[in-house]
User: Which sequence fits this backbone?
C-alpha cells in the first residue's frame, strides 16, 4: 500500500484562471486556487497603500 501512495504521479493543471492539482487516477483535483498575478497600473501615492512591483495571489483584490 505504501508503494502505491509514494509512486503516485502528481498532476498540475496551470490554467489561465485557476490552478488545479491532484493525483493521477483521481476523479477530481485535491486542491484548486486562483491563478492571480498583477502589476500596479499607476504609481501609488496614498499612505498605507500596498507597495511593490508585483502582486501574487488574492492580495491583488485588495489593491
Assistant:
Amino acid at each position: 500500500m505504501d508503494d502505491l501512495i509514494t509512486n503516485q504521479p502528481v498532476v498540475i493543471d496551470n490554467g489561465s484562471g485557476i490552478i488545479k492539482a491532484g493525483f493521477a487516477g483521481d476523479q477530481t483535483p485535491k486542491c484548486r486556487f486562483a491563478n492571480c498575478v498583477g502589476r500596479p497600473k499607476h504609481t501609488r501615492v496614498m499612505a498605507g497603500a500596498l507597495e511593490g512591483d508585483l502582486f501574487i495571489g488574492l492580495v491583488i483584490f485588495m489593491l
